[in-house]
């Protein structure tokens, strides 16, 4: 069987040198799990998305539905926001902008794409989110792996586990300098996250009322850090709403990737209803063939 075409796009940016790179395979109908995992490892981005079914009428206007799976270089993940944005933009570039429905392991995710000249953006609506408390002992273990202390945390935004398709530990810090100084124990944090089914640790700093800076360690995916994490942004939006830290309806901006040299912008829209899906918007652009600008997994 010939090798499938793998598209490469940078998500949550308008330049190939920014954002978070994702692989996209628009026709993975003939690939088994092992083949998808091998391709994701060879691509080397934090995730590669595989459409495992042809688009079928979704029963909702002109929307088309696809089954999708996401693989990091070392494992499958239930949902990936930046690869969802990249996939939706790739479909819009091929078929024209409009509505699609992606059936993920976490549930159906509606996506709307918009074209403005040559630029294409996409807005995903997450599955129903949830926010859970986290034990103090668990927080202390995470802080030890990060080489942080309780004094580094912002008491106005206490630690929580947030979910909007994948589980993330939310840790807010007092200062931008603390966020910038990220030097964690990779294997220790990986083991901690694996035991708790965490996809990333979402480290955030509040820049102003509706703007946050973020960093996302992703050792369980074999990647030191994500440059833009749409799944974490959706979960973080649910966290902000649950905590009453913002007043919906509201748009929140998350700036990520600057400390990696890959600046990204993620836009979160929140409705007042506590169980409403969180909308996350971003652009995506093709990465030129042969580009060396994309980050590689840990150890590569």
What would you note in describing this structure?
The protein has 300 residues and is α+β, with helices and mostly antiparallel strands. It has helices spanning 33-43, 81-95, 136-146, 176-180, 186-195, 230-243, and strands spanning 7-11, 20-25, 47-51, 56-57, 64-71, 76-77, 99-104, 107-116, 119-125, 130-132, 160-163, 167-172, 200-208, 211-218, 223-226, 250-256, 264-270, 279-286. An eight-stranded mixed barrel has the order 1-2-3-5-7-8-9-18. Strand 16 (250-256) and strand 17 form a beta hairpin. Helix 2 packs across helix 6 and helix 3 (136-146) packs antiparallel against helix 5. The two termini are 28 Å apart.
- What distance separates the N and C termini? 28 Å
> Judging from the principal axes of the Cα atoms, what is the shape?
globular
Beta-strand residue fraction: 35-45%
Helical residue percent?
A: 10-25%
- How do the strands line up in the largest sheet? 1-2-3-5-7-8-9-18
State Rg.
Answer: 18 Å
Reported for the largest beta sheet, the result is:
8 strands, mixed, barrel
List SSEs in N-to-C order. EEHEEEEHEEEEHEEHHEEEHEEE
Mean pLDDT: 94
What class do helices, strands and sheet pairing give? alpha+beta
Number of strands: 18
In terms of per-residue confidence, which ranges show pLDDT below 50 for 5 or more consecutive residues? 296-300
Main features:
300 residues, alpha+beta, eight-stranded mixed beta barrel, 6 helices, 22% helix, disordered C terminus
């Amino acid at each position: 069987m010939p090798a499938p075409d793998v598209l490469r796009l940078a998500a949550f940016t308008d330049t190939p040198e920014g954002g978070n790179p994702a692989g996209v395979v628009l026709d993975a109908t003939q690939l088994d799990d092992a083949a998808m995992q091998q391709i994701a490892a060879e691509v080397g981005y934090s995730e590669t998305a595989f459409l495992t079914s042809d688009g079928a009428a979704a029963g909702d206007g002109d929307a088309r539905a696809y089954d999708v799976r996401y693989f990091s270089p070392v494992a499958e993940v239930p949902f990936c926001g930046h690869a969802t944005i990249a996939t939706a933009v790739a479909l819009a570039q091929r078929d024209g902008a409009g509505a699609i429905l992606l059936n993920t392991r976490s549930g159906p995710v509606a996506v709307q794409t918009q074209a403005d000249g040559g630029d294409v953006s996409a807005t995903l609506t997450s599955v129903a989110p949830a926010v859970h408390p986290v034990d103090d002992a668990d927080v202390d273990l995470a802080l030890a792996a990060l080489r942080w202390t309780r004094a580094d945390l912002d008491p106005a935004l206490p630690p929580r586990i947030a979910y909007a398709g994948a589980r993330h530990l939310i840790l807010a810090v007092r200062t931008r300098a603390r966020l910038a100084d990220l030097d964690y124990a990779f294997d220790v944090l990986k083991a901690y996250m694996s035991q708790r089914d965490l996809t990333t640790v979402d480290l955030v700093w509040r820049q102003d009322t509706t703007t946050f800076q973020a960093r996302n360690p992703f050792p369980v995916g074999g990647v030191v850090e994500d440059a833009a994490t749409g799944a974490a942004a959706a979960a973080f939006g649910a966290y902000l709403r649950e905590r009453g830290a913002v007043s919906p309806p509201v748009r929140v901006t998350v700036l990520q990737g600057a400390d990696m040299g890959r600046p990204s912008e993620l836009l979160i829209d929140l409705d007042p209803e506590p169980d409403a899906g969180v909308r996350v918007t971003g652009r995506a652009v093709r990465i030129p063939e042969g580009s060396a600008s994309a980050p590689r997994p840990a150890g590569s």
